[in-house]
Amino acid sequence: MKKSAITLLCIGLLALSGCDTKDTTVAPSTETASGFVSGDTTVHVSGQNNFRDLGGYVGAGGKRVLFGKLFRSGALNKLTAADRDTVTARGIQQVIDLRTASEVASAADSLPTAIPSYKLPLIADVSGSTGSQSAFMAAVMAGTIDGKTYMLAIYDTIDSLKVANWRQVFALLQTGKPTLWHCTAGKDRAGMTSALVLSALGVDSAVIVRDFLKSNSYMSASIEAQITQLNAAYGAGVGEKLRPILGVDATYIQAFFTAVNKQYGSMSAFLTELGVDTAKLRSLYLEK
Q1: What pTM, to 2 d.p., does this model score?
Q2: Element (H, E) at 180
């Protein structure tokens, strides 16, 4: 089965128990060791559990990433009217949707009408992927598919589609408009994109890994609910086998960094390939 088909099947699993399950255990961010300004970076909405402001991290020259400028999230199809008011109040002026056309068609964003949305998928649509879900689950139960192995393959792949659309992502960011990017769960495609943006701003790689791992905290209630439902549907233990797909692991984003270095020589060289004007981006999104 192709990687893109596996990816879409994994995304389908995220919808089994509803990705809007709220996790009230996420504490305000006080990562002084990583230079995070004390304060809650969560964007509190009822229709999405992994929506956050990337402000506060220390970037190039010891300057912090500005609050209210850069946001990451999961799917926005369940935003309520009150949630849309929150998005407007945050000053978000453009949204970048990293999902496939079929994901968008089945769960279109519920955004304020005044905010433009740009569709820049990072993986290709695969016809018939939904019909392959039973085969995928059978392989998981038989032990012939390992969740972590397939997730690492996703992060280890930097193809022409990703490169082309990340170029467009950075072109939009270089307009200086407060921007939100999102995928379905807000952890993989949004996670890699966030890693690139924070790298461009000079944030330390160890801090980027910690930001990446926060999805596990934000989504913990949803992940546990999905594991329970998978166990009920397919048998005890199946949910745990799929935990690597439902959450994130430090090795995933490290595999992404390794792939960047292997294919382009360095993160700096890759950002240049993506057309990033690092000086401009830092002038727009770091404190003066």
Answers
A1: 0.89
A2: strand 179-182
